[in-house]
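Progress note, project year one: complex with zinc ion.
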Amino acid sequence: KKAVVTIPVVVHVLYKTAQQNISDAQILSQITALNEDFRKQNADFSTVVPAAFQPNAADLELAFCMATKDPNGNPTTGIERKSVPQNFVLGNSYYTSSGFAAWDPTKYLNIWVGYFDGVDSNGDPWDGTLGFAYLPNAAGLSFDGLVIGCFNMGTVGSLWVGYDKGRTATHEIGHYFGLNHIWGNTGVCGTTGGSDGCADTPATNGPYYEQDNPVFPDNQYTCTTTANGAMFMNYMDYVADYQMAMFTNDQKTITSNTMIGPRASLLN
Ligand code: ARG
Ligand code: ZN
Ligand code: CA
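Model obtained:
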């Protein structure tokens, strides 16, 4: 049994302006960043993760490569590009023929790259949205995969300050493999809330954002005050790219179960 599994990736670039048509080099820099983050080989690990949390950090044993064969078995770079008349808007069918259809999501990790704008169904602006992903229960559906903004994809090219280390994709792929946000999304603590199903990520009642500028140990949003405080430097929190640098052993249990469960077809 090989411990490390390699996931073939297809990147669908949908651009309205030339600047949104990100380079191959920018896309490949994202793959490099993923291979560091998911293997615990990221250079900033020992400076961003405090010593007290380092024993909780895991090598997720997941690796990524650009697809080398397309769904018809023909050679490919794993990158396809299309000029589109509209930026991404919620409800804009990026995964239909107006954008790019997914490559068989049971065989490939699909990543759509574009620029967000417009408003969603709640009237909230989508400008500045970093990305979103589907959990493993979407496995096989036509939109399964992730959507990422072109200015926070990869580590080279034109990138937003603070979102230039490829961690949006790291975070989104965490969701893709079944991980929840550290705070469990409920915004409350107690037995029914604050939980991401991981005992080794201290429970919090909400996200840490970049502007919170947390410094270890921080108990601002913890459910229980402890010596180590919150694990705000986890990839599944909401801090900026330079402030996050780890997954945990309990998160690895979830991602490994996803790989032998709902996403097992990626291994074939
Ligand atoms: N808001 C997005 C989500 O919940 C992405 C957050 C990514 N954070 C980052 N530092 N790149 O899926
Ligand atoms: Zn998220
Ligand atoms: Ca937890």
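The first strand starts at residue 5 and ends at 15.
The pocket of calcium ion (ligand 3) is lined by residues 195-196, 198, 201, 203 (CB under 6 Å).
No further modelling is planned for this target in the current period.
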